[in-house]
Specification:
This protein has 266 residues and is α+β, with helices and mostly antiparallel strands. The protein has a domain of 117 residues: Glucose Permease (Domain IIA). It is built from 3 helices and 9 strands.
Length: 266
């Protein structure tokens, strides 16, 4: 006795045209058609190929989009790099200009300091020259010969000769030996017409036997200025200048030594 008929075995249905989600994703990613092991190529549905093509087309679109985004990103990076480089270049130019201005300003300050130093040096030199000029001594006559010296004794003088005699032509200009102020200008007995010039240190210079006076009391005179003229007034034997040097207005000293000490050769 035979039993009920065995159920009819049907062939295992292919995954296509309805593919699992994982299989479809692999197809879309790789662009290939996956045929399950139990399915032959002849059994593969053309519809599955169409679905795969659609996925592949979408993938191409996505790939193109990613390529465009990547290109845009690279372009953006390049633009950023260019802007950064331009900014750095501008900063460098600004820094160079600032450094150039600072160098120019430093040079200007150095020039001004050097010029100021030169001005001060010239001013100091003028002051020094003025002091030397004011303190220098000159000979009282341009052309002369010496006769009676300091300290000589003769019947011509009451005790001894108190000065140095410069013989010169009548009316020859007498010049101040040094800078000072005229403190006396008048006739003084045996000295005749006499001019006294008092120096800054109190030393008195006497110019005696003048024929006429050229300056008055209170006049400031410098070395070489004319103060009178050679004459024969007072106790004389001929036209000459009698010069006396009296430190502090006291007793006379040798005029020849005083002149020599100031660099002169009478």
């Amino acid at each position: 006795m035979s039993g009920p008929p065995a159920p009819e075995r049907r062939p295992r249905q292919s995954l296509h045209p309805v593919l699992g989600a994982a299989t479809a994703l692999v197809m879309a990613t790789t662009g290939t058609v996956i045929v399950p092991p139990s399915t032959s190529a002849a059994q593969f549905s053309p519809r599955g190929v169409a679905v795969s093509s659609q996925y592949r087309s979408g993938l191409d679109t996505m790939t193109y989009g990613r390529t465009q985004l990547s290109t845009a990103s690279r372009d953006s990076d390049r633009v950023s790099d260019e802007l950064r480089a331009q900014t750095l270049a501008r900063r460098e130019r600004v820094e160079q200009k600032r450094a150039k201005r600072e160098r120019a300003e430093q040079k200007r300050v150095e020039r001004e300091r050097a010029e100021q130093k030169r001005v001060e040096q010239r001013r100091a030199e003028r002051k020094r020259t003025a002091r030397l000029s004011a303190n220098r001594w000159v000979l009282p006559l341009a052309n002369y010969s010496l006769s009676a010296r300091f300290g000589e004794v003769s019947w011509l003088w009451s005790s001894y000769h108190t000065g140095l005699d410069f013989v010169a032509g009548y009316g020859t200009a007498i010049r101040s030996v040094a800078s000072g102020t005229v403190t006396e200008a008048s006739y003084d007995g045996s000295y005749g017409y006499k001019t006294v010039v008092t120096l800054e240190n109190g030393t008195e210079l006497w110019y005696c036997h003048q024929t006429s006076l050229a300056v008055g009391v209170g006049t400031a005179v410098g070395p070489g200025e004319v103060i009178g003229y050679v004459g024969t007034t007072g106790n004389v034997t001929g036209a000459h200048l009698h010069l006396e040097v009296r430190p502090g207005g006291g007793d006379p000293v040798d005029p020849f030594t005083a002149l020599t000490q100031h660099g002169l050769k009478p």
